[in-house]
Amino acid sequence: MNDRIIIFDTTLRDGEQAPGASMTIDEKLRIAHQLARLHVDVIEAGFPISSPAQFEAVQRIAAEVEGPVICALARAREEDIRAAGEALKPGKRTRIHTFIATSDIHIDAKFGEARYGRTLAEKRQTILRLTEEAVRLARTFTDDVEFSAEDAGRTDVGYLAEVVQVAIEAGATTINLPDTTGYCVPDEYAAMFREVIRRVQPPASIVFSAHCHDDLGLAVANSLAAVQAGVRQIECTINGIGERAGNAALEEVVMALKVRSGRFGQPQINIVTQYLMETSRMVSLATGFPVPPNKAIVGRNAFSHEAGIHQHGVLRRRDTYEIMRAEDVGQQPEQIRLGRHSGRHGLFSRLAKLGIELPEARKEEIYRRFLALADLKKEIFDEDLRRLVEDQPAEDEATPWRLIALHVATGTHRAPEAEVQLYHQATGTLRSERATGDGPVNAVYKAIDQAVGAAHELISYELRSVTEGADAVGEVTVVIAFSGSRFKGVAQHTDVLRASANAYLDAINQLELFRADRESVSFVRSGIMQSFGGAAA
Ligand code: KIV
Ligand code: ZN
Fold this sequence. Notes:
Layout: E1 6-9, H1 25-37, E2 42-46, H2 52-64, E3 69-75, H3 78-88, E4 94-101, H4 104-110, H5 120-139, E5 145-150, H6 157-170, E6 174-179, H7 186-200, E7 207-212, H8 219-228, E8 233-236, H9 250-259, H10 276-287, E9 304-305, H11 308-316, E10 335-336, H12 344-353, H13 360-376, H14 382-390, E11 401-411, E12 414-424, E13 429-436, H15 440-452, E14 457-465, E15 474-482, E16 485-493, H16 496-531
Parallel strand pairs: 1-2, 1-8, 2-3, 3-4, 4-5, 5-6, 6-7, 7-8, 9-10
Antiparallel strand pairs: 11-12, 12-13, 14-15, 15-16
Helix pairs in contact: 1-2, 1-10, 2-3, 3-5, 5-6, 6-7, 7-8, 8-9, 11-12, 15-16
């Protein structure tokens, strides 16, 4: 049996049929060029009869994209086939893909009119005739003609074999048997191919093709089962986009065939897998369909490890938790993502990569503070780690005032209100105060002033983001004035109001330490004076 598997990409046709995924002609061209770099064998570029834009997209792709066969879709109707042939004219290697429905449900719904016959048997005969005429006409435009029996997955297999026989005799070179509704399960879909092939006994040159939809999440599994039944072409889309729940995802099909090559007779596949990630991003950008983080192969998390045990494992040996190499699909290798489930190994190995060697004595403290930050922030980035290591522990014994609790309420129809609870280390006092303000920060600062028993003049307030992500750490810097002196406070937190409160308290603490310092200097000085009998004045 031929060991080459043809990857037929239909991102620009079935993929674009996904509700809301439409692309401009320029976007389609860009993607078609990228698919050529990826080395797909066939690009289904569109359905030319369906609109002037579709016609033009197919025409330009046929004219400009070299490498893959460029294919155009056409119903089994003369006008469709002529439009497809016309659009493909500028192409060097082209294919017309013509289709007609064959399941009883579709026949009933689409061929209800008496002109197609009165009974199901008569309508089936009409479909055989239309199949033959369509394939013959398509062959007048190109030698490469694909025929699809729409809803093959729910078609009576005896009738399906008859249709396939007619299509082959009329000149079809590829026979596609789609699971149009995503209804089949893998062994059933494979059995359909085996049975059709058994009944038709096609010449070896005929390529059977699988085209699966993902309504039950089985599109990839069905496509792979079809390969085991002798299919040598898989129709698929980048990121699995397509009608309803989508089509089989190209990246998943290709990597399954490569990673589990032995299960499929070591087939030859042309795809340059290193471009999978880039292509996925391009399609996501053009369609506006984000790729879920947990998406196989091209998802952001597909090669990331967060749990401590997994991080420890992959750091020792990547194949403990990775069945393929991230770089083989264009992803970053060894993605240790730091978060609340990470262990010491993950954290310290990242710190070492950043060139930060921690003394043994600090490791436990850093790990504890890392976990505390990870509770507040979903993902810890390198910049977070640098800050974590540079900062001294928050519970500095020398800190006079500490924020114990903070509540802020604000809204469109109410004045911002803040409640703070502060602890004074030296005296062991706990103070709670509440205040309203012009804004939430102003309310917090007023409540703090009340709690510490002094009003401070706020000279400047600055907020900036110091790390990445929607839950980035914000750094607040404030300058306050008191009795003509200025004091600066800085604090960081993922919650900017907490950062604001702590920065203000930091400045107040600087002020308090400064005053305590001055008092002790004057105390010492007055002591010196007294011992000299108060001589100087
Ligand atoms: O799903 C389907 O049946 C199709 C055909 C046009 C091949 O997309
Ligand atoms: Zn389809």
